Amino acid sequence: MIARISAFVERDIHLALSYPSTLYMPLVSAAVTVGGFAFFSRLVSPHAHLDAGGARIDYFTYVVINLSFMLLLNAALQCVPQALRRDQVAGTLEAMLAAPTPLAVTIAGSAVWPMFFACIQAGAYILCAMALGMHFAHVNAPLLALFLLLGSICTMTLGMLASAAVIAFKQSPPSSLFVGSAATLLAGVLFPVTLFPPAIRALSWTLPLTHALRGLRAAAGGAPLAAVAADAWWLVAGTALLIPIAYLSLRAAVRFAKTDGSLGSY
Q1: CA–CA separation, 228 and 210 (whole Å)
Q2: What average pLDDT is seen over the chain?
Q3: Are 155 and 77 contacting, i.e. CB atoms less than 8 angstroms apart?
Q4: Which of 41, 43, 56, 208 could be bridged to 154 by S-S, CB 3.0 to 4.6 A?
């Protein structure tokens, strides 16, 4: 299994190296984005702090934590459907899924490199922000790891549902809606969701991104697990509900496409 996953990773690395701009431009973008918010945060009173699960963080830290870790959640959501759609258009999807490789291995192999590079991007955000004065000394590392794991798995299950749509409809799915501009607004990436009216706050509560980022902000501020336990349980329940639905949907889509001979079409 490890050898097969390694083959997927090697393929993705070769593809990335063939387009060098895909490697360095995101890192340049991280520096530009963080620098822009460093100046923008000066418009916010330095005495104004935002609540992060009982901890208090300044606005610059609030935005950088949200933006950096949203990259990881976006990668978890988009990596599998994007890889399947790329192989679909390239004409290699049929051969890949016809090979004696379990579907779970294909999913895992397609996710490793995008998630690894997203970690590098998130690290670039954090390092740039620390160079510009962000304090990251009181982080609750176990809580941070927990919410990274829960948030990534939950959003990856949504990505598996999107992958089923790629196989079934031969189109790129609208999965970016979960991490696009609307979701960025509703999940409180740029400002707290408590500023919304009750109806919009209720809508925000349904997004896994909202709960994952709230837990990550709390971890960055040094808050304990008890402060964001409800968000952790939301992600656990959402993941437990979505995993069988998403996996069975993807298997059904692949099986149907093999049966009607449309697996190689796009």
Answers
A1: 12
A2: 84
A3: yes
A4: 208
Spatial neighbors of 119 by CB under 8 A, at least 6 apart, are 72
Share of the chain above pLDDT 70, in %: 93
DSSP 205-228: HT-HHHHHHHHHHHHHHT--GGGG
Chain-centre distance for alpha carbon 111: 11
Dist CA 93 CA 103 (whole Å): 12
H or E element, residue 52: strand 49-52
> How many Cα atoms are found within 13 Å in the side-chain-facing hemisphere of 13?
9
What's the rounded Cα separation, in Å, for the pair 209 and 215? 10
Would you call 58 helix, strand, or coil by DSSP?
strand
Assigned token pair, 27 = 């890192």
Give the confidence band of 179 by pLDDT, cuts at 50, 70, 90: low
Asked if the model's pLDDT at residue 48 lies above 80, the reply is no
Residue among 162, 64, 152, 63 at smallest CA distance from 115: 152
Sign, CA dihedral 234-153-137-57, equals: negative
- CB neighbour class for 221 (10 Å; exposed up to 12, middle 13-18, buried from 19): buried
pLDDT band at 47 (very low <50, low <70, confident <90, very high): low
Alpha helices in 51-207 (DSSP H): 59-90, 93-98, 103-131, 141-169, 181-186, 198-205
Q: What is the pLDDT of residue 110?
A: 84
> What SS3 state is found at 162?
helix
